[in-house]
Amino acid sequence: MEKQLLVDELLKLWKNCAGNAVSADDALPGCEGLIMYEEPIFGVSSAQDPIYVTFQQPEVVGPNFMLPEEWLPGARSVVSFFLPFTERVRRSNVGNPEETSPEWLHARIEGQNFLDDYTRAIADWFRARGAQACVPSIDDRFAVKPTPLPEGHPKGVHIASNWSERHVAYASGLGTFCLSRGLISVKGVAGRYGSVIVTEDIPADERPYTGIYDYCIMCGACARYCPAGAITVEGGKNQILCRQWVSGVTRRRYDPRYGCGKCQVGVPCEHQIPNPKFSKSLS
Ligand code: B12
Ligand code: SF4
Ligand code: SF4
Questions:
Q1: How many CB atoms lie within 10 A of CB 125?
Q2: Residue from 85, 189, 243, 246 to probe ligand 3 pocket by mutation (most atoms less than 8 Å from CB)
Q3: Coil, helix or strand for 236?
Q4: Backbone angles phi, psi at 264, to 5 degrees
Q5: 3-16 vs 102-128: helix crossing angle, rounded to 10
Q6: How far is CA 150 from CA 58, 59, 93, 100, in A?
Q7: Dist CA 158 CA 149 (whole Å)
Q8: Closest C-alpha to ligand 3, atom 4
Q9: Sign for the pseudo-dihedral over CA of 159, 187, 1, 48
Q10: What span, in angstroms and rounded, lies between the C-alpha atoms of 117 and 187?
Q11: Minimal CA–CA distance to 47: which of 212, 263, 203?
Q12: Closest among 148, 191, 240 to 36, alpha carbons compared
């Protein structure tokens, strides 16, 4: 199937998928009807792309990373997408490092619920065409666990899932990593990624980059805004400190929601590729 036809169909599904607006029942004060995401962008990779095997190396994701073929026997393609947060969600979370905005909390929790529903709808659409489809993020086998790095590695341990959406998006041409360890797409870093593995052949997208940090300008703005001191220009991002803040401090404060994302707003990579070498070549 041609990529543009696929994109047209997936955009139709996105428009018909309920839940991108926060309902009155769920809304924190002032957030009723909040639209969380802008239109998604899509990337496709071959399920046989050798890059997936490299993700099983300890320093990349780790041996727990399951190949597309292991999730779905007969897998041919991986469809990855990025849902950029709307301007209202992004602007609301700029400033005051100590407080996560209610809009961002909704985008983290109700936003993920919407993303799960949208991913299910994509999988069902492929199934209705006679293909098979698997959504690792909502599959019973999905797991996140600490993975030791080789001895002497300065970071010691990865907190790694067996299906890393950022690595899949990187493989599918959607973008590159950055100092804060988000994945920057043409629509920036503020938003969420999802993916579906299918048995249908779809032409793979090119990766318009060669380095894993090509889109980042290493300006250090994300490090200045991080309330947990988890990011340094010299050392990158410390996942343990970030996790203590996101899953500890913010969860206690905003339970049942949580989230932070101060490293993703008010920064040059918020909604665009900040590296002019790459943003020019794409415009
Ligand atoms: C566990 C987890 C966390 C943990 C640990 C984060 C982490 N860095 O892994 C904690 C709780 C700290 C966390 C925090 C947050 N998370 Co989180 N998290 C995840 C989860 C579930 C798994 C991540 C994972 O598997 N990591 C694997 C490890 C190995 O990744 P890594 O160490 O960064 O990878 C490095 C190496 O691979 C290295 N490398 C070395 N050699 C090579 C060679 C090659 C070829 C490559 C490609 C790379 C490479 O480069 C990478 C970058 O340095 C994903 C969802 C998913 N299923 O993917 C979401 C996810 C990463 N989180 C996300 C978000 C938004 C957040 C928060 C902003 C929370 C919030 N919403 O308020 C924060 C901040 C994250 C940030 N700054 O990037 C988004 C990221 C969106 C984006 N734009 O990038 C994801 C993808 C969820 C989603 N569905 O969109 N998260
Ligand atoms: S704020 Fe600057 S250093 Fe941090 S991820 Fe964005 S471009 Fe890279
Ligand atoms: S999400 Fe993590 S790395 Fe980003 S600003 Fe918050 S604590 Fe720091």
A1: 18
A2: 246
A3: strand
A4: -115, 0
A5: 120
A6: 7, 8, 37, 35
A7: 7
A8: 263
A9: negative
A10: 22
A11: 203
A12: 191
Q: Using the Cα atoms of residue 263, residue 228, residue 94 and residue 21 in order, give the sign of their dihedral.
A: positive
User: What digits encode the pLDDT tens for the residues 52-103?
Assistant: 999 999 899 999 999 999 999 999 999 999 999 999 999 999 999 999 999 9
Residue 168: how many CB atoms within 10 A of its CB?
Answer: 28
Contact 279, 264 (CB under 8 A): no
The helix or strand, by DSSP H or E, that contains position 125, with its residue range, turns out to be: helix 102-128
Q: Band the pLDDT of 143: cuts 50, 70, 90.
A: very high
> Which tokens belong to 143?
């797991």
Rg of the chain on CA atoms, in Å: 18
- Residue 59 CA, ligand 2 centroid: distance in Å: 22
Q: Which of 219, 240, 215 is nearest to 230 (CA)?
A: 240
What is the DSSP code string of 181-211? S-EEBTTBSSEEEEEEEESS--PPPP-S-SS
84 is written with which tokens? 């950029």
Is residue 180 within 6 Å of ligand 3 at its C-beta? yes
> What one-character-per-residue DSSP string does 244-256 give?
IIIIIIHHHHHTT
In this structure, what are the phi and psi dihedrals at residue 57, rounded to the nearest 5 degrees?
-70, 145
Q: What is the pLDDT of residue 283?
A: 45
The closest-lying atom of ligand 3 relative to the alpha carbon of residue 237 is: 3
DSSP summary character for residue 138: G
Give the contacts of 74 (CB within 8 A, at least 6 positions apart): 132, 199
